[in-house]
Amino acid sequence: MGNTLDQKEEKLAHPTSLHKNDFTFHYVIGKGGFGRVWKVEMKKTHQILAMKEMLKIRVVSKRSVYSVMNERRLLSILKHPFIVNMQYAFQDKDNLYLGMDLMIGGDLRFHLGRVRRFTEEETRFFVACIVTGLEYLHVNGVIHRDIKPENLVFDNKGYLRITDFGIAKVLTPENFRDTSGTPGYMAPEVMCRENHGIAVDYFALGVLTYEFMIGRRPYSGRNRKEIKDSMMSRQVQLKKSDVPTGWSMEAADFINKLLQRKPENRLGNNGPSEVKNHLWLRDFQWKKLLEKSLDAPYVCLSEDNYDPRVNNDWKDDIDPAIRQNSIEELFEGYFFDARSPQRKVSDEKIQLQRGEESTVQIRYQDNVRRRDDI
């Protein structure tokens, strides 16, 4: 598979030309591990956005500097109607700010919690949206590695988009050390610390589709070890007696082929066209989907699509040994402005692998680990 992104890196001028005061912060619509997500309006252009506000000390305390910097660097290059695109990124002394397309429909987990299962028609549409987004990523040599309902969000027409690129990677042949992800959706080769490729995203798609059909994930457990043991002990295989009323055997076959534990046997291992040509999806109107001219079978209401718990405070888990003035250089270059005419892509290779983090960050993380070992 060709890798067209590994020769590009965003070079941006004027890294201080955006400020929090350039935006009107309306209200909170989400909460993450580092802060809140706001609905905001760009004062000058009246553009409505979702804005992640992330406390730097919390990012460092959770050892997630690489993740937030990786997401900004990838999103400065990626742009597609089936991913959530970055419009702005900037920082002040205390916080990082990431301005994204506003998805008013909320995330898929919120809606799945409401309905528990989706119909086959709804599921096929969702899967087609996800496959379209994954096709763009995979053709450009990027694996997402954390496809799950929380990272799939609805736009105002009921189309799903992929978000959260914190652990996404430019594809490399040696990546067995990278075991990040969410255990319930993690492919066996990642669980077992093996080299992995685009097939990990299709395994996660199989887990999702199974969940939409059956109402639960195929492999369960209270922790990563239990999920791994469940996965290694048996190959999930939907039989005719497992298929709910209103669902086809073609859908079951699609799921079974995605959930193959060996990546070489998995649907999608040879590329996204393999998934799109499966009997269950073969006649889907892909061109109209990309144009967003199809009527979505599941349309969210314009309001009340966010979990009310987003306004709750998170626990105070900041490492007291971290000093604000000691971490500023970790976030150097955290800036992006989609409007800038001076943006250009260089011919330098993107350095997105864990082994290529800044020496400052690695040194700091080593110090954290040593404190933890005491």
TrEMBL record:
It is an enzyme of class 2 (transferase). GO terms for molecular function: ATP binding; protein serine/threonine kinase activity. One of its GO terms (biological process) is intracellular signal transduction. Pfam families: Pkinase. Belongs to the protein kinase superfamily. PANTHER family: PROTEIN KINASE DOMAIN-CONTAINING PROTEIN, SERINE/THREONINE-PROTEIN KINASE. This is non-specific serine/threonine protein kinase.
